[in-house]
């Protein structure tokens, strides 16, 4: 068959069987090869199916159902209380009682202020709980160290000294809180610890003094001195921990134990009252001059 282009001119002949081939063309095959429509707003555009599949496979995005969405477990009342105590402990250690606000504690714990008030009634109640926990922790540690059965007097002093330094090393925040409580709020946390320790040190010293014929009335005084020696040094060591803990303890026990070991009966001062008066007079004259 020969076709015309409409101008009367003849064009190349059409191959035989062309019409039959066109008739036999499967519309479904053409539909499979045609681009797939994709709606965009009010208009549509065609996207190649292979391209569409590639986009879906590489994006990795899919909708999640409510069941698949992870949910954070809600804290129990006891867990929330412990969390608030832990957070407050850090705040009070850093800034003290006056420098810490309820708003800051609540913000760090990621809770509202009413939650804090519900558990502790306010900042004062929370602070009291924090201080009491630290006092009990330190007191229990020292008490256990100096009352352990089967230990000699020197070993008890060593253990008591190490118990305080251990606490300072492992719980510096707690020790700072105890110290600040005594100085800033007039709290008796550290004082109560020292008083308890002093009584137990007296129990250690009493048989030693009796065995050596030293006036037993001096036991409370010496117990105060020994306890204060360790406590004040502990405060100093909190800021100077470049000296190893056991070295600090060794110096303290050396001074305390050997000092007691060489205590003398009837010991008196060599400087008389007149010497002290003369020293004061000389100091006054040098100031006036």
If you had to describe this structure to a student in words, what would you say it looks like?
Strands 1-2 form a two-stranded antiparallel sheet. The protein contains 13 helices and two strands; from the N terminus they run ααββααααααααααα. The longest helix is centred in the middle third of the chain and has 25 residues, at 123-147. α7 (123-147) packs parallel to α10 (189-212) and α8 packs parallel to α11. It has helices at residues 18-23, 27-33, 49-59, 77-99, 102-109, 113-120, 123-147, 153-170, 172-184, 189-212, 219-238, 245-261, 273-288; strands at 36-40, 43-47. It is 68% helix and 3% strand. The protein has 289 residues and is mostly helical. β1 and β2 form a beta hairpin.
| CATH domain class of the domain at 131-261 | Mainly Alpha
Mean pLDDT: 78
Largest sheet: 2 strands, antiparallel
Tally the helices: what do you get? 13
Record field, number of beta strands: 2
- Helical content band: 55-70%
And the CATH topology of the domain at 131-261? Tetracycline Repressor, domain 2
Question: Which shape, going by the Cα principal axes?
Answer: elongated
The unreliable regions are 25-34, 37-47, 49-61
Strands in their spatial order, largest beta sheet: 1-2
What is the SS-derived class? mainly alpha
Kindly estimate the percentage of residues that lie in beta strands according to DSSP: under 5%
Order of helices and strands: HHEEHHHHHHHHHHH
Full CATH superfamily name of the domain at 131-261: Tetracycline Repressor, domain 2
